[in-house]
Amino acid sequence: MPKNYPEKNRGPFIAFRMWLIIVSVLCALGIMWPVITGTAYAAEVQEIPVDTEEAFRTAIERINADDTGDTEYTIRLTDDITLRGERAAQINTNNTINLLGGGHTLVIEAQYGIMVQGTAVLNLGGEDYEDTLTILGVPHDTSTTTSGLGRQSSFITISDGCTLNMYDGVTLSDNEVIQGGTAGAGVTVQYSGRNGENSTIFNMYGGAIKNNTTYFGLGAGVSVMNNSSDRDPVHAVFNMYGGLIEGNTIQETSGGYVNGAGVYSQFGTFNMYGGVIRGNTAPGSGGGICILHGAFTMTAGTVEENTSQYGAGVYLSNSSVHIQAAEGNSCIVQNNKATHTTEASYGGGFYLSSCENAVISGVEITGNTVDTTVNNGQGGAAYFYGMTGLQIVNPRSHLYGLAIQDFPAHSQPIYTTLTPKSTTWSPDNKSQVGPVLPV
Q1: Alpha carbon 250 to chain centroid distance?
Q2: Which residues of 290-301 are buried (b: 16+ CB within 10 A; e: fewer)?
């Protein structure tokens, strides 16, 4: 006879089987897998197509309202758009925004450009370099440049803790900032310390910033401003990996600043790892680059055909300086001209003042000139003033200085007021190289 076993409690077994079925379904839907494995999927990119000014502003409002801080948005232009009014756009978010043009143009007619705040990351163009976007200004009546009318800021201003990435295929051109406006016409990088220790960073991987004009006079192309109390240059940073900064101009006006037509930095950092800075014009200092009380590093790139009174190619004052070509790369400073209509000019290629322990190594300095017809301008290649611990090294040359060549006979390539004062001349007596001083 069969044994009479008591009925088993099958409740837990049934519950376990139901749990397996539910988990299997959820995994198939992609819901439980991150919980089980401890991994998470990247946030889905939310795409917002825009074809009018109203649609563009609505997209910005939607992004600003999202306080999650982990969402990525793509604003994609499907037509040319003109932004008017007082402010082109006010971005205040901790999210990431990709602004893609799709071959279209964003015209800025507004008095102020695009302001980026929070800890936002703004990407102009695509990292795959397949997108094209033009941000374009429109000329204003030059008769109103002192009347308070017209644009008064850069196309794009990023502030404390924000990051701007610019890729190939993007062009920022033809902005005009009137006298009395804020610094910069193309891009302004600013840090005030109001948002903790997060640095403000502009990474230029490609594209062009060109043909912009400012009547205020600090960085017609790119302006880097650290206005915090600590003045630490690491908090406002411009990294140039590629691209072109060309044809930007500072107009000389009474009482205005006139420095750094290509790139201007004050208490900030400019790292040039590539790219070209060409054909920019400033009446004062640094037609190509002007760095005051900051840090400048150059490991590759070209600075050429720029014009100003002092340091037409590169003007550096009271700053940390390290210029050394990386392996396989070239640092070129060529065909820049220091000139002024009524006053003496100094430093066609470089002007360095009070930069302690500066290093210049492996740089090609060619064809830079200074106007000697007005008050005996000096330093076609470079002008050094008040320098201590300067190292000028070029292992490719038999001279223990820079490779300097092809200067007109009437131009004196280097004038120096270094202590100790010593110079070495190349055999043709046209190309003069600076001394190597102990650190």
Answers
A1: 18
A2: bbbbbbbbbbbb
Q: Which two tokens stand for residue 235?
A: 């908090």
Enumerate the domain spans of the chain. Answer: 309-439
Listed in sequence order, the residues at least 6 apart from 308 whose beta carbon sits closer than 8 Å to its beta carbon are 259, 261, 281, 282, 283, 284, 285, 286, 287, 315, 338
Structure tokens at 181: 């406006």
Residue 229 contacts residue 193 (beta carbons within 8 Å): yes
SS3 15: helix
The one-digit pLDDT tens for each residue of the chain (439 residues) are 444 544 555 555 555 566 566 656 555 544 444 444 444 444 578 999 999 999 999 999 999 999 888 899 999 999 999 999 999 999 999 999 999 999 999 999 998 999 999 999 999 998 877 789 999 998 765 544 443 446 678 899 999 899 999 999 999 999 988 755 556 899 999 998 876 678 999 999 999 999 999 886 688 999 999 988 888 899 999 999 999 999 999 987 645 568 999 999 999 999 999 999 999 999 999 999 999 999 999 999 999 999 999 999 999 999 999 999 999 999 999 999 999 988 888 889 999 998 888 888 888 888 888 888 877 788 788 888 877 777 776 533 322 223 333 334 334 445 444 433 333 333 222 334 443 332 2
Cis peptide upstream of residue 420 (ω within 30 degrees of 0): yes
Residues in the chain: 439
Say how far apart CA 82 and CA 80 lie, in whole Å: 7
Tell me the DSSP string of 236-299: EEEEE-S-EEES-EE---TT---B-SSEEEESSEEEE-S-EEES-B-SSB-SSEEEESSEEEES
Distances 387 to 161, 208, 348, 355, 419 between C-alpha atoms, Å? 34, 34, 18, 6, 8
* Pick from 149, 131, 25, 33: nearest CA to 86: 149
How many contiguous H segments (helices) and E segments (strands) does the chain have?
A: 3, 42
> Which helix or strand (DSSP H or E) is residue 222 part of?
strand 222-226
Candidates 71, 123, 47, 61; CA nearest to 92 is 61
Give yes or no for a contact between 111 and 151, defined as CB atoms under 8 angstroms apart. Answer: yes
